Amino acid sequence: MERIIFATGNEGKMAEIRAILEDLGIPVLSMKEAGITADIVEDGKSFEENADIKARVIMELTGDVVLADDSGLEIDYLNGEPGIYSARYMGEDTSYEIKNKNLIDRLAGVPDEKRTARFVCAISAALPDGTILRSRGTIEGIIGYEAKGEHGFGYDPIFYLPEYGCTTAELSPEKKNELSHRGKALRLIKEELKRMR
């Protein structure tokens, strides 16, 4: 294993990924850093299926070990929305400021106990021999009443953790990596990769 490619162009996500995988001692490159452009159609019906699709397409293009994640926010009161459409919710070019405000507005008047939500992350590792390894991580919380915090990205400013009294955007990057759905899923897949080496 000379290198690992992570099938994303999201720099915020890459910073978290590198911090967690650095002790593997293998360079972890984004698609952009690896010089890959691919139009991947994510038409899976679950986070796992979408992660599999992304990892497999890039592994077949490069012959490298490729990791891909599909993650999103599930809000119970909204029947699991935005779910697997989290990145594309309200259109791909809509800012998270607008998306977050929309979700808060849709929950106007809804009490804390019905604002339950979770972040889900499914990670797939596609290996050159065709094997796919999978992991899944979640973090439970509630949707806050306003956006707060400067760290993180995406829906972090509205995802409130009652036991910590703050949103995931108010956590330090180290604490967020320790608690987050992506951190949990990455640590699980890292153990799988270590076993293979």
Commentary on this structure:
With about 200 residues, this protein is an alpha+beta fold. The protein has 5 helices and 8 strands, in the order E-H-E-H-E-E-H-E-E-E-E-H-H. The protein has helices at about 10-20, 45-60, 95-105, 175-180, 180-195; strands at about 5, 30, 65-75, 80, 115-125, 130-145, 160, 165. Strands 1, 2, 3, 4, 5, 6, 7 and 8 form an 8-stranded mixed sheet that branches. Strand 3 and strand 4 form a beta hairpin. Helix 1 crosses helix 5 and helix 4 (about 175-180) crosses helix 5 (about 180-195).
Q: What can be said about this structure in brief?
A:
With 197 residues, this protein is of the alpha+beta class. It has helices spanning 11-21, 47-62, 96-106, 173-179, 181-196, and strands at 4-6, 28-30, 65-75, 81-82, 116-126, 132-143, 159-161, 166-167. It contains five helices and eight strands, in the order E-H-E-H-E-E-H-E-E-E-E-H-H.
Topology record:
Elements: E1 4-6, H1 11-21, E2 28-30, H2 47-62, E3 65-75, E4 81-82, H3 96-106, E5 116-126, E6 132-143, E7 159-161, E8 166-167, H4 173-179, H5 181-196
Parallel strand pairs: 1-2, 1-3
Antiparallel strand pairs: 3-4, 3-5, 5-6, 6-7, 7-8
Helix pairs in contact: 1-5, 4-5
